[in-house]
Amino acid sequence: MTERPTPDKTSAAGRESLGALLGGRRGAIDASLPPLAFVAGWLIADRSIGWGAFAAIAVGVLVAVERLLRGKRVGAVVLSLAAVVLAAYIALQTGRAEDFFLLQLLSNLVSALVWALSILLRWPLLGVVVGTMLGQKTRWRRDPDLLRAYSLASWVWVFGQYTVRVVVFGLLWWSGQVVALGIARTVLTWPLVALTIAVSGWVLHRALPSDHPGLRHPRELAHAQD
What percentage of the chain carries pLDDT values higher than 90? Predict the structure, then answer.
């Protein structure tokens, strides 16, 4: 006879699985290095966008090589490096150092809109990501409790991460605060991601009934198969 999970076991499993699946601290730190290099190069070279761009791309290449040596997917590495090159290109073309961060601002704006739309369409992206990583495909959507919980937790990502970044980056970009943008780019990367994961995990757990078996066990799995 299968043991029915108690609320304590369920809560621990739910929080643990979300944090483990959506970790990625190393990747977030890697993404912060090129922007910091841009700001450092820009300052050291007497506010030269060219040297700032060179420093950012050079560091981006080093990070890419190191990630490849760690066995990361080539496509993801190339995409990250391409984003650094594009950000540098934009700043060089406009002649405004703050425009190096324009791509980051726009990508977070798009992310906020896409995540919000996914919730309204009843396909919350947090559920899509976690469900895919757990090998559930779309089976989690057949569990009304999980669908509701993922929807509520996804709003944390919309407002607690992407909207915060849009507001902060937007204000700093508008006022031309290049150094502050570099600092914000670091602070609003892994620390904010970690906080978002923690809060959304808490919301996800609180939204599920106390007798729910947890993220890994949508109730539909007991009597439905693909």
Answer: 67
Which residue segment(s) compose the domain that 25 sits in?
Answer: 7-222
User: Can you tell me the distance from the alpha carbon of 61 to that of 38, in angstroms, rounded to the nearest whole number?
Assistant: 13
Any domain includes 2: no
* SS3 at position 20: helix
Mean pLDDT of 103-117: 97
126 in helix, strand or coil? helix
Residue 20 scores a pLDDT above 80: no
Query: Residue 2: which residues within 8 A CB-CB, separation 6 or more?
Result: none
Residue 1 lies in a domain: no
Longest CA–CA span in the chain (Å) reads 72
Measure Cα distances from 207 to 82, 210, 211 in Å: 39, 9, 12
Nearest C-alpha neighbor of 150 from the set 225, 221, 214, 193: 214
* C-beta separation of 212 from 10 below 8 A: yes
Q: Which tokens in the block code for residue 90?
A: 């934009």
Q: What is the tally of structural domains in the chain?
A: 1
The candidate with the shortest Cα–Cα distance to 134, out of 6, 14, 11, 8, is: 14
Residue 89 phi, psi dihedral angles, 5° rounding = -60, -45
User: In three state form, how does the secondary structure of 24-75 look?
Assistant: CHHHHHHHHHHHHHHHHHHHHCCCCHHHHHHHHHHHHHHHHHHHHHCCCCHH
Whether 130 is in a domain gets the answer yes
- Tell me whether residue 133 is in a domain: yes
Angstrom CA distances, 71 to 64, 68, 74, 81, stand at 11, 5, 8, 16
Which residues does 114 contact at the CB level (< 8 Å), separation at least 6?
A: 125
